[in-house]
């Protein structure tokens, strides 16, 4: 990773010198159409201001991206002015980030979901502006459910049964590559999101309670992971243990999965003109853990932050203001189905026509379960890693859910020092 970071910095320095006029750089994700949308927004701002901007693509894996950012910021490099950061990173990265309230007035920040502004405010400083928000959702093949007389599942058991039935029938009909369910089971932050949704939907808590108590070792959490472990090699391919968002989408969009857990961005891509499943996709809230469980989707999303080491913080903050503005968020919602962080856009007729599920799942986006990053602070990355390592071991058949969670409980308790994070 250090070699990657150093190579990136050398490339950026070379481009700045070679271009001569480049004065800002921004890191953008490259998941789906994310990079092209970022490029379009940046180009529009550049044409208005006359300021050139270099765009740096970063790893799709949030875990790899976080490690890269930490190295770049720790070096106090001025080569990247604006960072695209995950919703769980503000607390950890805050010491390296500019207070944007110096440059962006309160009447603008007030347009965004207050929960996200609160999340991005650390010790009174607004260290990032919300760009788009997400919550995990369930995609399904409308045509296949209709073909076999099934309804969209409301519980995980219903999903399991429906997936198994349709998978078997489709294979008998000739599609030997068909699977019932794909999701993110690679050992990375995406698995933390998926597994937390399973656990929370059963009523098993969120790893760490709001008062700092480690709560993961409980019967409902064990039940959730036991359920998920039974999917591997049955309704989910063995290879799902190495799937991230894009690999899951690739299988589903090629027509080889009945259900998929993913983020809202996959809607626009799944309905693109060249998509084999265009017009055949439905989206609903993720299933409940059982009759007494509840729907649960993990809160995700990305923010834009300005580095304290930027040589042009005012211009960088202005670019952040532009990219997170109402018109730009509407454009991104229409083209890429990225969930706005400005609440009134969920009442916009054009946005709802482009992404109909925005309206029906609005409550899911508002009430999504948060990962315990605020309470665990700069230890969150370690907490998450310990969790996804444990879950990956269970899914891979290396250990049982009961043993893995008991061991995880002890590790997190030692890390928390008795709840004092």
Automatic annotation (TrEMBL):
Residues 1-18 form the signal peptide. SUPFAM superfamilies: Periplasmic binding protein-like II. InterPro entries: Bact_solute-bd_prot1, SBP. GO terms for cellular component: periplasmic space. CDD domains: PBP2_TMBP (cd14750). Keywords: Signal, Transport. It is found in: Periplasm. PANTHER family: ABC TRANSPORTER PERIPLASMIC-BINDING PROTEIN YCJN-RELATED (PTHR43649:SF34), ARABINOSE-BINDING PROTEIN-RELATED (PTHR43649). This is ABC transporter substrate-binding protein.
């Amino acid at each position: 990773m250090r070699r990657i970071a150093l190579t990136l910095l050398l490339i950026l320095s070379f481009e700045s010198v070679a271009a001569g006029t480049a004065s800002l750089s921004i890191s953008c994700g490259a998941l789906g159409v994310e990079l092209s949308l970022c490029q379009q927004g940046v180009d529009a701002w550049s044409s208005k201001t006359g300021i050139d901007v270099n765009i740096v693509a970063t790893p799709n894996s949030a875990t790899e991206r976080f490690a890269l950012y930490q190295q770049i910021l720790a070096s106090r490099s001025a080569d990247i002015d604006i960072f695209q950061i995950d919703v769980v990173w503000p607390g950890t990265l805050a010491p390296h980030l500019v207070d944007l309230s110096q440059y962006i007035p309160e009447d603008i920040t007030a347009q965004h979901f207050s929960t996200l502004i609160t999340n991005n405010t650390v010790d009174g400083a607004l260290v990032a502006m919300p760009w788009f928000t997400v919550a995990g959702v369930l995609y399904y093949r409308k045509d296949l459910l209709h073909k076999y007389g099934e309804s969209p599942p409301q519980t995980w058991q219903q999903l399991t049964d429906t997936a198994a039935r349709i998978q078997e029938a489709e294979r008998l009909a000739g599609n030997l590559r068909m699977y019932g369910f794909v999701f993110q089971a690679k050992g990375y932050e995406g698995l933390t999101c998926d597994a937390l949704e399973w656990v929370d939907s059963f009523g098993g808590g969120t790893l760490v309670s709001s008062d700092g108590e480690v709560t993961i070792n409980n019967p409902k959490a064990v039940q959730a992971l036991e359920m998920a472990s039974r999917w591997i090699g049955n309704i989910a391919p063995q290879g799902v243990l190495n799937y991230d968002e894009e690999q899951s989408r690739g299988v589903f969009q090629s027509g080889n999965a009945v259900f998929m857990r993913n983020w809202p961005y996959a809607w626009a891509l799944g309905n693109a003109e060249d998509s084999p499943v265009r017009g055949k996709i439905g989206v609903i809230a993720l299933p409940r853990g059982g009759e007494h469980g509840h729907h649960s989707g993990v809160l995700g999303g990305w923010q834009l932050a300005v580095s304290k080491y930027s040589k042009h913080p005012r211009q960088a903050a202005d670019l952040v203001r532009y990219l997170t503005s109402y018109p730009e968020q509407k454009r991104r919602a229409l083209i890429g189905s990225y969930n706005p962080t400005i609440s009134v856009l969920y009442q916009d007729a054009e946005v709802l026509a482009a992404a109909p599920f925005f309206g029906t799942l609005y409550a899911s986006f508002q009430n999504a379960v948060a990962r315990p990053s605020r309470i665990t602070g700069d230890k969150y990355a370690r907490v998450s890693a310990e969790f996804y390592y444990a879950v990956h071991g269970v899914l891979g058949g290396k250990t049982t859910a009961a043993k893995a969670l008991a061991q995880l409980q002890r590790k997190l308790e030692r890390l928390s020092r008795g709840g004092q994070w």
